[in-house]
Design a protein that fits this description.
Radius of gyration: 14 Å
Largest sheet: 4 strands, antiparallel
Strand order of the largest sheet: 1-4-3-2
Number of strands: 4
Shape: elongated
Order of helices and strands: EHHEHEE
Structural class: alpha+beta
Helix content: 25-40%
Distance between the termini: 6 Å
Length: 112
Amino acid sequence: MPTTFTLKTKSVNSKRLLATVTEFMQTVITEFSILWDSDTHRDAIIEVIEEFLEELAEDGKITQFNVICDGRNNTKQLRDSGMVNLDITFKQEDCYNTTSLHYVVIHGSQDS
């Protein structure tokens, strides 16, 4: 079974910026599909995402960001079932709202 994801958004200020982030995240989620089971691998994936967001910050598109994909939003039972929550928040340049992106990554069994 291939890795898929769902996305819930809140306070999206720029559809263009959302499209950029979503395209990047789709690539990350599918390219690293077999690595979501391991804490170490998940940490490496988070570093890749943070580097991407840092580039957006350097380009002046966002001013602050946070990525959460650990025990705060994932239980062992959830991970064992093949699901991982990944939350990204960022503040867009010149906006009061903070954009929230909630990804639920559903990865297939390695036995499939």
